[in-house]
Design a protein that fits this description.
The chain is mostly helical and about 120 residues long. It is about 70% helix and about 0% strand.
C-alpha cells in the first residue's frame, strides 16, 4: 500500500496552537517528557520530594522578589540566559521558582487538553 506524502504544515494545522512563546513551547514539550531544562536534576529530586508532601498555593509562593524573577525569566531570549538567572538564585528561591514552574506546566497541560476536546 502506498501512502501519500503530507506536508508537515498540514499535519500541524490539525493540532491546537500553543499560545505561549516558542522558547516556552520547547520548555513545555521537554518538561512533559521529564526533561526539565532549567533546573539541576539533583535539585529537582529534592524539590519533588518536598512537593509530594507540600502542595503550595500560588498566593503562598508569590511575592515581589518572585514576581521580578518571573518577569526576567519571561523576557529571556534564550535558554542559557534563563539558566543563568535560576543558577544565581538561593536554593530556597530556586525551589519556589521550580514549584511555580511546575504549576505553570500543569496549567498549560490543562489548557491544551481543553483545546483538543
Amino acid at each position: 500500500m502506498k501512502f501519500a506524502h503530507l506536508p508537515e504544515s498540514l499535519i500541524q494545522s490539525n493540532y491546537p496552537e500553543m499560545k505561549i512563546p516558542p522558547l516556552w513551547q520547547v520548555l513545555y514539550q521537554e518538561a512533559i517528557r521529564g526533561n526539565h531544562l532549567l533546573f539541576d536534576k539533583k535539585e529537582i529530586e529534592r524539590f519533588e520530594e518536598e512537593r509530594a508532601t507540600f502542595k503550595p498555593a500560588w498566593d503562598d509562593l508569590i511575592n515581589e522578589d518572585i514576581e521580578e524573577i518571573a518577569t526576567h525569566l519571561a523576557g529571556c531570549s534564550d535558554l542559557r540566559e534563563m539558566m543563568d538567572i535560576i543558577d544565581s538564585l538561593t536554593l530556597e528561591t530556586r525551589k519556589t521558582v521550580y514549584f511555580l514552574y511546575v504549576e505553570l506546566l500543569v496549567i498549560w497541560k490543562h489548557a491544551l487538553r481543553s483545546q483538543l476536546n
